[in-house]
Design goal:
Number of helices: 8
Helix content: 25-40%
Shape: globular
Largest sheet: 9 strands, mixed
Distance between the termini: 18 Å
Radius of gyration: 19 Å
Strand content: 15-25%
Number of strands: 15
Length: 344
Amino acid sequence: MAAGRGGGRHGVMVALLLLAALTPASAASAAALPLVINTWAFRTAAETAWKVLESGGSELDAVERGCSQCEIDQCDGSVGYGGSPDESGETTLDAMIMDGNTMEVGAVADLRRVKNAIGVARKVIEYTKHTLLVGESASLFAVRMGFPYEDLTTQKSLSLYSEWLNQSCQPNYWKNVVPDSSKSCGPYKRREEVTYKEEHTSSQRSMVVIGESGTVASGTSTNGAIHKLPGRVGDSPIAGAGSYADSTAGGAAATGDGDIMMRFLPSYQAVEYMRMGTDPTVACQKVISRIQKYAPKFFGAIICANTTGSYGAACNKIPGFTKFHFMVSSPLLSRPTEQVVDCI
């Protein structure tokens, strides 16, 4: 991820979105199952998810373990503890996991002091009738489920926060406030006249897994946009935005500027395109093109895979981001393999 407004790759995808089951490098891909795909070139996450499938684990197991590996590895600084401190210097986590057979979703947002966000998200499915838990209540739930409280701050995240303060809190996510947020740390208050200025924010990491029988599962994990306002939640924990899984059609996952991409439910839209028979690569491209009409300079990418094992990917071309890298594991490959697609 190149340096950018939100941190992480282009300030986007500041989340782990391990998509097990979707991500090609060209317009067409050979179909084979099972399939594991994750956004960005996180090899250990892909290897972990693939090993779970090889050992007889379920698709949900593979997604959870793959995303969890990225949380442990602090993939690119945009997943897990010790990255993307918010305006107050605190690292918080978002995660989501989805079962494409039952359409159950478990998600947590603004999770504090608990490192294994994807694990907590799965417990939401297993032990509650809810879909999304947030903030301190999510942390309390995690402790009841046996997860320990741990400090998510590291020397690196403290350093990032200190450097940001020393640069007059630049960049930040405020607009239409006084004092001028482009020159000051505030505190801010609203001003009377409102003008619009387009800004780039960040996003998450995802994974989609498709089993031998075509069963689909997807998951995401992220520490959000760096220097975000406390309480901000991006697309990662939102079903249909960060990722989506439906064993009758396929799976998809998005990464990038979560504040923009979540407005279009790109993962859900991609799966619906595939349900209508659209090739996965074309489905990904159609989703990107739709967002381009409203936000031509947005940073983002998406991976798509159908239940036969065909997969594809697409990304929005902007300065500094012309190609999208992702990992694919399938019986046709001798090992998890990094692939690349040109942005449109």
